[in-house]
Specification:
alpha/beta; 61% helix; Cobalt-precorrin-4 Transmethylase, domain 1; single chain; Rossmann fold; elongated; 571 residues; 4 domains; four-stranded parallel beta sheet; 25 helices; binds iron/sulfur cluster
Amino acid sequence: MKIVVAKTAGFCMGVRRAVDMVLDASNLSSEPIYTYGPLIHNPQVLKLFEEKNIFKMDRIPEKGSGIVLIRAHGVPPEDKEALKNAGFTVMDATCPRVVRVQVIIHKYAKKGYSTIIIGDQKHPEVVGLLGYAKGKGHTVTSLDQLYELPRFDDAVVVSQTTQNTDFYGEIKAWCKTNAPHYQIFDTICGSTEKRQAEIRELAEENDAVIVVGGKQSGNTKRLAQIASQTGKITAHIEDVSQIDYGKLSSARSIAITAGASTPNWVINDAYDQIERNLQQQHPARAFLFSIRNFLLKTNIMTAAGAGFLTYACSVLQGISQNLHHAVIAMLYVLSMQILNNLFTIKPDKYNHPQRAFFYKKYRSWLMLFAVLSGVSGLYLSFIAIGRISFSILLIMSLLGLSYNLKIIPFISKKEQLIRLKDIPGSKTILITMAWGTVTCLLPAVASQSKWLSVAVVFLFATGLVFARTAFFDILAIQGDRITRKETLPILLGEKRSFGIIQYVLMADMGILLLSSFTDILVKKAVFLVIIPLMMLLLIRFFRKDSFVPGTHREFFIEALFLFTGLIAIVI
Ligand code: SF4
């Protein structure tokens, strides 16, 4: 069974912009924030918004206070005025592509033109557009309705930005033949066109299509309609619990797509659950996948990667390959990662629902596992390495434990204490530094290595860890913004973070290559250049090709750390 995810699935530019605006407002302001209508068609996220003081407003009250965000669909100009007159501060997140249509309608309406909007008159975007037509707006959802309209002397024809491209093509063809004086504008958004073209293609190539997104979402309903018109099995679901697997039993390949307001973790979750369910038909494969998922969820694979990286760092410096260091690094990373996941069960409910469920269900066992790992690591460092290593590890463990606690005095409007995790970019940087310390510095301190070798190996190790962590943070950026995790991609943006990751990995390769011509590192260090190179290629590939779901990407990137250790064993 093959499952593919559409590259265009998930948030479009306009929805992403509106979500970013409302979250920025909620982080900066203590006033209540309202969205005029639901911002995203996802009940769980709307609930989380309420916890963040962001509420949905359905009607404009006579009086009120706070900030009201106009969502990407836009509103009629009189609604905007009514909000201001009621006493609200209006934040306009109307998508620039919708604004373009509003401007066209307004311009021609001022000249006395009638407006024909191809779209559902109840859809919020169309309601907003009609507001600019100066009372001369008409909506059309079928060719018959178009035939029934009077022939206007002057009219402008536009479509809802998420309209079906084929249908609008028929409308345009009819107008050109029967009312050539009408001014016709191509107003279907490029993102909608691409999304629809892709689902047409995917529906042709696959046996079934699953469309994930709100039942009220117009663009999601249209995707389901396009897919079902190809005659393929089509299911429109809001979440995976609604899938009828019996219907999919004859399908050998499934395409998944999603509407413009569906968060990407909902798509990833759908992929994971569909894959797991369908794999029940192949017990051997299902078993292997469940082991892989267990190793990822429990962080055992990540911890093993830290151990292998530690071993490689020791080999590079030419110091005695004391396996204790690798085990200590493994235990430290295991303990910190599990504790961090336990502390973030609540926000992870939205961003990583499967992981949150797992941590909630086995909370006590995982807590015990984390504490035992942490204590064992400290004990081993004390008896096998020495007091200095033990003290450094103890300080790092305490820092890791305090990451989610409000301990830093911070004078803000509310004079509150903040957590380490509230510092912008802290998550990515602190994980990188912690790994660099346990994988490189602790063994170096114990072996009293040459400082130049230590510096070079530290750069190599932190470079790899930084790229891994920042890349995972990019994958989780939508949910992290909503649940307010302070990662580097949130601070710098996705594009800049990708740029930095690439430069860091190239620098990593350069460092190893240059060092291999000197006696700073062991001569065969050059073989490890393959690791940052593979990570760079994988990340570039994953970035270009959204077909690869989150768990697979995570697995491949984590596996590279195991390879680092294996190469070090061979050289
Ligand atoms: S679908 Fe297009 S026009 Fe509509 S909000 Fe998204 S980007 Fe803007």
